[in-house]
């Protein structure tokens, strides 16, 4: 299967994980404020390019730093406003951001790999068809989330790193490389 064979148009929805896809992932830490939030290279421009292709772009992100008491919901809102501002300045758009602040051990149905955030998105945007949806993520939880919903799964993994291929449909070193392939 090739990306061009999917015939992606405005009927499609793009689900994006945040840390490691949109912004730099902090090792053994959480992005707790805007000074710690750093876009990955050319990501705002990549999202602007993808905005011209997909009908909806949604962010689905686990944020257990809130559940651990390291930050608040308000801190996260400020970070997300900052992120969206950078994307809009580049000509892109995020239709909505969904997050789960529960701890992994809580088994919250909203927390990836569970599908609660996608099902909530489908309530908000009834035109979402998961068979015409792509999840872009950098973890196996993201790939399992997409598999459970029947989405096309795009795994972000830097060049040189290895992982078994049966967990995803496509692999790219960055969101920017994925967007360039679709352009």
CATH superfamily: HAD superfamily/HAD-like
Which stretches are poorly predicted, pLDDT < 50 over at least 5 residues?
Answer: none
* Rg (C-alpha, Å): 15 Å
CATH topology: Rossmann fold
Put simply, the count of helices is 6
Using the alpha-carbon principal axes, give the shape: globular
> Quick check: average pLDDT?
95
> Numbering strands along the chain, what is their spatial order in the largest sheet?
3-2-1-4-5-6
Give the DSSP E fraction (strand runs of 2 or more residues). 15-25%
Number of domains: 1
Beginning-to-end CA distance, first to last residue = 17 Å
SS class: alpha/beta
Describe the protein in words.
The protein is of the alpha/beta class and 183 residues long. It has a single domain, classed as 3-Layer(aba) Sandwich (Rossmann fold), CATH 3.40.50. It has helices spanning 43-51, 64-67, 73-89, 116-124, 140-149, 175-182, and strands at 13-16, 56-62, 96-100, 133-137, 152-156, 170-172. It has a six-stranded parallel beta sheet. Helix 1 links the parallel strand 1 (13-16) and strand 2 (56-62). Helix 1 (43-51) packs across helix 3 (73-89) and helix 1 runs parallel beside helix 6. The model has no long low-confidence stretch (mean pLDDT 95).
Task: Please write out the topology.
Layout: E1 13-16, H1 43-51, E2 56-62, H2 64-67, H3 73-89, E3 96-100, H4 116-124, E4 133-137, H5 140-149, E5 152-156, E6 170-172, H6 175-182
Key features of this structure:
183 residues, alpha/beta, Rossmann fold, 6-stranded parallel β-sheet, 6 helices, 31% helix, 16% strand, globular
């Amino acid at each position: 299967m090739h990306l061009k064979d999917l015939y992606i148009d405005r009927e499609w929805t793009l689900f994006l994980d945040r840390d490691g896809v949109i912004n730099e992932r902090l090792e053994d830490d959480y992005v707790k404020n805007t000074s710690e939030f750093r876009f990955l290279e050319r990501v705002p421009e990549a999202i602007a390019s993808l905005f011209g292709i997909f009908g909806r772009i949604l962010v689905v992100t686990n944020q257990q730093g809130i559940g651990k008491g390291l930050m608040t919901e308000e801190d996260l809102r400020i970070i997300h406003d900052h992120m969206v501002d950078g994307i809009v300045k580049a000509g892109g758009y995020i239709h909505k951001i969904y997050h789960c602040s529960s701890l992994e051990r809580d088994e919250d149905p909203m927390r990836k790999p569970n599908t609660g955030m996608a099902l909530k998105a489908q309530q908000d945007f009834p035109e979402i068809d998961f068979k015409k949806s792509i999840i872009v993520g950098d973890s196996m939880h993201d790939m399992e989330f997409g598999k459970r919903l029947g989405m096309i799964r795009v795994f972000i993994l830097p060049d040189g790193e290895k992982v078994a291929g049966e967990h995803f449909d496509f692999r790219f070193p960055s969101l920017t490389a994925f967007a360039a392939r679709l352009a």
